[in-house]
Design a protein that fits this description.
about 240 residues; 6-stranded mixed sheet; 9 helices
């Protein structure tokens, strides 16, 4: 079997349910973090492991953007000292900045979707379509045609995971909901794999750190957001896909 030289880690921010989070975060964001396996093994994983050892003394810390932002749960230590907190955030940003990764990002504006379409498609289905299309173009450019490419996704529940797997299969067959053929997507052998966040995957944690800041940069484009500034330099073609 021919495996891809690349692996994809995916995560989301916001609810895919139309009408949910109307005031706080009225969008759904999905990111695919595309990374070459050799670089992931030799650079990304060691850097994140070192970060954890340096700040909490072990490598079982799971980087979760929400808990870091709120300085809660395993990240309550960030409340102790402003200098330590700033150092941790800077170190995290530096790791992302140095990482040779590419990010495919889809932002679904749920309010616009509801106002424009009487029977709108599921935001998750739309987002997965856009991310698979962008990732396929990159993988094809890197000569990964017909190779088995794993997409690691955070498990959300048996029913939800099965629905997403079926949606990915639909897109992979070239029959997405958006109504236009995606020939580039058909050239890749997609293999979704669902993992619990507790599996402590460095790639899933990178994706988790990317999703919300990129979404906020869509909602509040004029607001200073150092994390988003760095992440935007990693975006495929320098932009994310927003819909509608």
């Amino acid at each position: 079997m021919s495996f891809s030289d690349y692996i994809i880690y995916a995560d989301e921010s916001g609810s895919p349910v139309l009408g949910a989070d109307q005031d706080d975060f009225p969008i759904f964001v999905l990111v695919f973090v595309l990374v070459k396996k050799d670089h992931y093994i030799s650079a990304v994983v060691p850097a994140l492991q070192r970060l954890k050892f340096d700040f909490v003394g072990h490598d079982q810390l799971i980087l979760h953007e929400r808990d870091i932002r709120r300085q809660s749960k395993d990240f309550a230590f960030l409340q102790r000292d402003v200098g330590e907190r700033e150092n941790f955030l800077q170190r995290t940003n530096d790791i992302i900045q140095r990482a040779d990764i590419e990010i495919c990002c889809a932002v679904i504006d749920k309010a616009k979707l509801r106002s424009r379409y009487s029977d709108p498609w599921d935001p998750y289905a739309l987002a997965i379509t856009f991310c698979m299309e962008e990732a396929a173009l990159r993988l094809s450019r890197y000569g990964q045609h017909a190779r088995e490419t794993t997409v690691v996704l955070e498990a959300r529940g048996n029913n939800e995971d099965r629905q997403l797997e079926l949606e990915m299969a639909r897109v992979a067959r070239g029959s997405p909901r958006i109504g236009r053929p995606l020939t580039s997507v058909q050239q890749i052998d997609w293999k979704p794999r669902f993992c619990d966040k507790r599996c402590n995957s460095s790639g899933l944690q990178l994706a988790d750190l990317a999703a919300r800041p990129l979404g906020l940069s869509y909602l509040r484009p004029d607001q200073t957001n150092r994390a988003a500034e760095i992440l935007r330099t990693k975006l495929c073609n320098g932009r994310f896909k927003s819909f509608p």
